[in-house]
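Hello,

Our lab assistant flagged a job as stuck in the queue for most of the afternoon. It eventually completed. Since we weren't sure the result was trustworthy after the delay, we are filing this so someone can double-check. Below is the sequence as submitted and the structure that was eventually returned. Let us know if re-running is recommended.
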Amino acid sequence: MTEEIPADETVEDPAPPVVEETLEQTPIEDTEVPVEEERDPLEVALERADVAEKEIAYRDAEIQNIRKRMMAEKAEVIQYGGMGLARRMLTILGDVDRALTGIESDDESPVAQGLRLLRNKLWHELQADGVIAIEAKGQVFDPAKMEAITMIPPSEHYAAGTVVEVLEEGYMYKSKVVTVARVVVASE
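-- returned structure --
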């Protein structure tokens, strides 16, 4: 039940008509584009030269500041370069001092004399390099140089805030604290 279409007859498919869409032509509005004024090339070059001069001056000042900072850091490294060795030697000095506490002051044995000699030589070498002992007993407590281990009530001999006793000696290397003095402080 199919109808056959004879070959000599052409059947045209009714295709939908092609509708040409037209774009609405909107008039281009006159938008103002900022137009740079013609500037004198000499004026432009002078402005660029001024900016470059300022930049060079800024960079030169920055370089000078870096040089000064590097020189100060280098001087500090040179000045405090021996601080690490001094710290290690101070621990040895502490050990020798602890050994000497077990020896009586009138003991003239070779061991006692050797320990005293060792302690004196070590201390003189450390002093020659810039190590000084922190004087604490009877002084006002200074938390930058001292550590309060215990506190006792003030008395007529020691006012509040005064160091009563030094438990462990403190040392400075030139102007820096190497080890703090551990002290007993009179406090209310």
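-- support follow-up --
The delay was a queue issue, not a problem with the job. The result is valid. The first helix runs from residue 41 to 79. The mean pLDDT is 84.
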